[in-house]
Amino acid sequence: MRWKKISDAVVRRLPLYLRVLEEAYHSGDVKLMSSQELGERAGVSPALVRKDLAWFGEFGKQGVGYEVRYLREELRKILNLDREIRVAVIGVGSLGHALVRYNQQRYREDQHFNLHVVALFDADPAKIHTRLDGLMIHPIDTLAEVTRREGLQMAIVTVPASAAQQVVDRCVEAGIRAILNFAPAKLTVPEGVHLANADVSLELQRLAYYLGE
Amino acid sequence: MRWKKISDAVVRRLPLYLRVLEEAYHSGDVKLMSSQELGERAGVSPALVRKDLAWFGEFGKQGVGYEVRYLREELRKILNLDREIRVAVIGVGSLGHALVRYNQQRYREDQHFNLHVVALFDADPAKIHTRLDGLMIHPIDTLAEVTRREGLQMAIVTVPASAAQQVVDRCVEAGIRAILNFAPAKLTVPEGVHLANADVSLELQRLAYYLGE
């Protein structure tokens, strides 16, 4: 069952709620949590917490709150995080490499962290067919083949801006439907494919605005 | 002059407009741009482009469009990007190091890119007082002193989640008012300090939602 027409703004807050619930669940001493407390810990107003979660079902009881264990499980299902998601990193320069190491550490330390980088790609002949942190670096033109073989569903793109659109086009052709782009470029994807931008420069430029206040 | 009460959503789109204008300006062959074209290139509706920019002044003429060179200059002023902003990277593990290298490359290649990483900090005694890519790594407890001396205004935080709040508190004490946090932790800052989260895991979890569609 999927829930249609839920806005990206709602979806954006779900991982924040999940993080609070994971912390409470693993600490073990919070069984019930009010929307007030969940909101405070997630940095969202209690009314918005209730409204967001109501899109997906009735999870809380008035005056009692949300059952932490249950809501955590449900949110993991809603976000498709109840099963392993196999991820490619395309472009293993210093940023790509750092993201691989970060992912491997998270994956190793947290058995519930199901986002797993399992394949690397690069265009540099000197890197292709070598291993990085235990993973083989494939040439980009094998993306479709490796995607099929490895069951890749998501890609993290850290190639130079000039190559980014071409790489994203290849991801789309290969059937990858969720892409996190770090290249400082405006990219387009067809409907049905989701692209998120993690361009660090844009974030810094946005923050710079507030320095003048 | 500052413009009060402008929503974060508006501010978030300004760097997207600036990027389009920078590209047009440097290509040299586009002198005027309609809100239609600016919107298309930035991925924003033309009506929203006009509405966003109207917060800051009258930049366009109906039926003529925006003068690229002028609007670019004005946006750079609005975002405080018309002068150098000195940035600290706190935590120089693999992600921190990758961000330093990325910044140095951008800064070197683009004379208009005014976000400049000039100081590094770490807690690891083996790293402290050594140089990384030409920059000295300082101990974290000298943050206030180095901030004063170097005129630091912004910090990029890439320390482990468990240390992140403490590091951010130190930034606030040192007078840094804009912080980009990569640690997977919910952090709080007092009013007047701006914190942006660039937690890669949250972005990936959000994208995972769409895999089930």
Description:
Chains A, B: Modulates transcription in response to changes in cellular NADH/NAD(+) redox state. Chains A, B: Keywords: Cytoplasm, DNA-binding, NAD, Repressor, Transcription, Transcription regulation. Chains A, B: It holds the Pfam family Put_DNA-bind_N. Chains A, B: This is Redox-sensing transcriptional repressor Rex. Chains A, B: It is found in: Cytoplasm. Two copies of one chain form a homodimer. The first copy, chain A, has 213 residues and is α/β, with parallel strands linked by helices. Chain A has two domains: 8-78, Arc Repressor Mutant, subunit A; 85-203, NAD(P)-binding Rossmann-like Domain (Rossmann fold). Helix content of chain A is 45%, strand content 19%. Chain A contains eight helices and ten strands. Chain A has helices at residues 8-27, 35-42, 46-54, 68-78, 94-109, 143-150, 161-174, 200-209, and strands at 32-33, 60-61, 65-67, 85-90, 115-122, 131-132, 135-139, 154-157, 178-181, 194-197. In chain A, the strands form two sheets. A seven-stranded mixed β-sheet of chain A has the order 6-7-5-4-8-9-10, sandwiched between helices. In chain A, strands 1-3-2 form a three-stranded antiparallel β-sheet. In chain A, strand 8, helix 7 and strand 9 (178-181) form a beta-alpha-beta unit. The first copy, chain A, starts with 7 loop residues before the first helix and ends with a helix. The mean pLDDT of chain A is 92.
